[in-house]
Amino acid sequence: MTTNNPMRTFDDSRRWATDGTAMLTTAIEQLDASGIAAGSQLPGWTRKHVVGHVAANADALGNLISWAETGIEKRMYASTEQRNADIERAATLPADELLTWYARGATALEGAFDRLTPQQWQHEVITAQGVTRQASDVPWMRAREVFVHAVDLGTGLGFADLPDDFLTALADEIRVKRGLSEDDLRAVSGSLPDVTAWLAGRPHGIADAPELGPWL
Questions:
Q1: Are 36 and 95 in contact (CB under 8 A)?
Q2: Could you tell me the maximum CA-CA distance found in the chain, to the nearest angstrom?
Q3: Residue 5: inside a domain, yes or no?
Q4: Residue 99 falls within a domain, yes or no?
């Protein structure tokens, strides 16, 4: 199985998606009802918003896997408005109902990954941004969500807790999407976790780094 990014392989993405889900799940399970309702590191979002977003993302990526498996087009979301409404609704759910949705979606997505054949992984699907990609990129999309939002949850995890090989792949992808050169990155003095957090628009420890705005 191949990907379009030399910084990662398909097997890397599968491993990261699994490990990131485990990290996020552990962080969520440490929260009580008041803790999960508290604010996250994302402006205007509680931890319930974050968990609801990741739960909805599992369902949405499951749609893409279904598309690859059956050949029947199935978009991630009915609309951007519906996606946003689902996240806001998630923030109002009782904690146990929200966590059940999150766990069900994560388990179902992993099972869907396991079902696809090598040929099905090569099928083309369309992301929420309207980009055509092979289904083999979906585990990478999930890995980004679970690892980055595990940090966003605000339970004490930081980018330094994420795997270095994942951070390298993530930093390279965001750099390209932001139109930055490798020289631009070399001009920023900081560790790999801090540089990646800066690129992702998250809190970092780099002095005088320009603000890049939100990402993901």
A1: yes
A2: 50
A3: no
A4: yes
- As for how many domains the chain has, the answer is 2
Of the chain, the end-to-end C-alpha distance in Å amounts to: 25
Query: Which domain covers residue 99, as residue numbers?
Result: 10-157
Q: Is the pLDDT of residue 145 over 90?
A: yes
pTM of the predicted model, to two decimals?
0.94
Q: Which single residue is written with the structure tokens 């631009």?
A: 184
Q: Are 78 and 123 in contact (CB under 8 A)?
A: no
Mark 56-86 as b/e (b = at least 16 C-beta within 10 Å).
bbbbbbbbbbbbbbeeeebebbeeeeebeeb
Which CATH number covers residue 48? 1.20.120.450
Q: What is the pLDDT of residues 151-206, one digit of tens each?
A: 999 999 999 999 999 999 999 999 999 989 888 887 888 999 999 999 999 999 99
Whether residue 92 sits in one domain with residue 146 = yes
Query: Token digits for 155?
Result: 């339970």
